[in-house]
Structure formats: C-alpha cells, structure tokens
TrEMBL record:
The active site is at T34, E42, H68. Keywords: Acyltransferase, Transferase. Residues 15-116 form the Fluoroacetyl-CoA-specific thioesterase-like domain. This is Dihydrolipoamide acyltransferase. It comes from Labilibaculum filiforme. Substrate binds at G61, R112. It comes from the Bacteria.
Length: 124
C-alpha cells in the first residue's frame, strides 16, 4: 500500500444556501451548518488519500471529533486541509482544519477504515 503518513490536501469551496443550518435542519439561521462542515472535512480526508489508495479499495468513516468555532455566511470561501497522521493497518487517522479568510473556523480528528467495497456492500 502506498499510503504514507504526512499526506496532505487542501480544498476550497464557497458557502451556498444548500450549506446552511436552515437547509440542513440543524438550526434556524442562514449560516454554514456544522453538518456541512463535517461533510466537507470527510470529503477532504478522502481526497487526501484517493490517489494513493490501493486500486479497487475504498474507505468509510468510523469516527470524527469536531469543533465548529466560527460562523460563516453564504458567499464566504471556506478551505479545508486534511493531513494523514497515522496509518495503522487498515485504520487511517487524520487531523483536519477548516478556515476562512480570517482564520480557523473548525477542526477535527477523523478516522477512516480501508474496505473492499464489494465485500462491504455484500455484508449489508
């Protein structure tokens, strides 16, 4: 397996109406929703390892510990950086940070598990 600790990737997006707490049902305000940020963090972790993951394999998220420390309005740019900090067999650990133009808006530790998608789906 080519996965090495230290792999890092950054992605950027612009907050839209579909990313707001009112849209997600996680609040009543038109601000960047915590569930939207968590999804962006998981997506960034996936992007961090996608090119180095063994062909035919995939990952599933098994744990995320998140802090959402600053609100953002529609139209603001948000960046997310994920770093693979530990490879323990099939268990992958990430440190993730989300930020806007002014600084950090959220952080997380995240674990993903490498799976064979055919076998995984066959067990459901």
């Amino acid at each position: 397996m080519a996965l090495k600790e230290g792999l890092t990737v950054t992605q950027t997006m612009t907050v839209t109406d579909k990313d707001t707490a009112i849209h997600y049902g996680s609040g009543k305000l038109k601000v960047y929703a915590t569930p939207a940020m968590v999804a962006f963090m998981e997506n960034t972790a996936i992007a961090c390892i996608d090119n180095d993951l063994e062909k035919g394999m995939d990952t599933v998220g098994i744990q995320i510990d998140t802090k959402h420390s600053k609100a953002n309005k529609v139209g603001q740019k948000v960046s997310c950086t994920a770093k693979l900090v530990k490879v323990d067999g099939k268990k992958l650990s990430f440190e993730i940070e989300a930020s806007d133009e002014e600084g950090v808006i959220g952080s997380a530790t995240h674990m993903r598990y490498i799976i064979d998608p055919v076998k995984f789906m066959g067990r459901l």
